[in-house]
Amino acid sequence: MVDNSSHYFARGNTAHGAHFLYNSAFDGLNKIFVLTGPQGTGKSTVIRSLADGLLDQGQHVQCFHSPLRPDELDGIILTELKVGIIDGRVCEGIAEDEAGEIVLIHFGEALDNGLISPEHSGTIEELRGKLDRAYSKAYETFLTALRIHDEWEKYYIESMDFTKAGLVAEDLIQDLYAGHESDTPTVGRHLFFGAATPKGAFDFIQSLTAQLDRRIFIKGRPGSGKSTLLKKLATSAEQKGIDVQVFHCGFDPNSLDMLIFPQLRTAIFDSTAPHEYFPDRVGDEILDMYTLTMAPGTDEAYAAEIASIKERYSAKMKEATSLLAEAEVIDSQIKAYNVAATDFSIVEGLQLQLQSELNEMIGSLQFTK
User: Fold this and answer.
1) For residue range 54-79, what is the model confidence (pLDDT) as tens digits?
2) What is the pTM of this model?
3) Which helix (H) or strand (E) holds 363?
4) Please, are residues 100 and 31 in contact by the beta-carbon 8 Å criterion?
5) Which of these, 180, 283, 291, 179, lies nearest to 225 by C-alpha position?
6) Which of 60, 109, 210, 276 could form a disulfide with 79 if both were Cys (CB 3.0 to 4.6 A apart)?
7) C-alpha–C-alpha distance, residues 228 and 224, integer Å
8) Measuring CA to CA, how many Å separate 266 from each of 54, 76, 105, 283, 320?
């Protein structure tokens, strides 16, 4: 059975802080419902419930997951309707003057602040400060890890044959795009396929590529040109009018980790840790940038230096992950206070209001077909 849902992230906890891609991910929609209110007022639960109901009705739903709790949803898009629903606390980057109609749904109305004692209010404020500090420390630690990663890359960059790397890109552009060009340039859609979470790296590569005919697994080392190759391919696709989904690295959003070409039914992605996969079906192939572009013996020549860097990098990544886990615990504590003071009958009413409007849209869409 074909899965009628697609799963992404559009925000991430990165070495450059909290990073949002919602402006691109939600571009082109006719309407966006923004659910406002603090954590614990039922927004994610309602979004999940609506998603499940829409899937049961045969609608294709794009699901955008929380990097703090990947089992929870930040938002969804109803693909056919071109309608989005999103938690207002996480949709930074969506500009009202550029998006379609934006409708605010105020879940904060369900929160009875009178049920939160002055003592608990003070505790919540203290927890919010702790949450901000935990996130800040996590981002600082990720940035330290990125600087260590830069040291790692340096050994391979110095050993790289850039002429060969350029030829690899040119060959791929010809292989992938020949016969599919258009006179109208496109603009890529920018997303994350994974995220740094309190439990470590998490990704949706397998589900996102499951229905594609061709998957190119890029292997290599840090600094062996994987992201640069993907950037060249993305730029060329846009210039040649080929639709492309551009997936940024959840650790360093300035780097790219995957491209999907829906019309070509093809994906090409960085298949190294922490999202390392191997071919397991017809249509899968490996592109090894290390063997294609690096001076032989580079690994062996710098083995001791690289081992030391890998150890320091791993330690910093573990430290940053533990800080995200700390942030998740604090966020849960704040959430618990709000849950206890929320009237969920009001939340249910807001959900029914949303569901009714969506059903009306679906009915109108089916009538026009």
Assistant:
1) 999 999 999 999 999 999 999 999 99
2) 0.96
3) helix 344-368
4) yes
5) 291
6) 60
7) 9
8) 28, 24, 38, 9, 34
